[in-house]
Amino acid sequence: MCMEEKVNEILEDTINVYNQMKVSNDSLMLSFQNDKDNYYQYACAEMILDNLDKVCEKIENLDCELCALQSEKNKK
User: What is the distance of C-alpha 35 from the center of its chain?
Assistant: First the structure.
């Protein structure tokens, strides 16, 4: 498996985790609306989603850099 495939696989896995966390967070948001004691869990889930979003962005950038490097390598 080449590096680009590995990066894409990691990105797909991370996006899947993000989507699962989003579903969990939506549930926490609904329970927070009914019970303000759930704010801590909801706030933590929001932070996790923000961090996962940053990780996805970094992996996408890495994938682009790998593509550019591969393109340069192929030109030589």
Answer: 28
Q: Within 13 Å of residue 55, how many CA atoms lie on the same side as its CB?
A: 17
Per-residue pLDDT tens digits for 45-55: 889 989 999 99
Q: What is the amino acid identity at position 16? A: N
pLDDT value of residue 54: 92
Look up tokens 């759930």; give the residue.
38
SS3 state of residue 14: helix
Q: CA-to-CA distance for 36 and 48, rounded, in angstroms?
A: 20
Structure tokens at 36: 């303000």
The number of CA neighbours under 13 Å toward the Cβ of 34 is 5
pTM of the model: 0.72
Structure tokens at 63: 């994938």
DSSP letter, residue 1: -
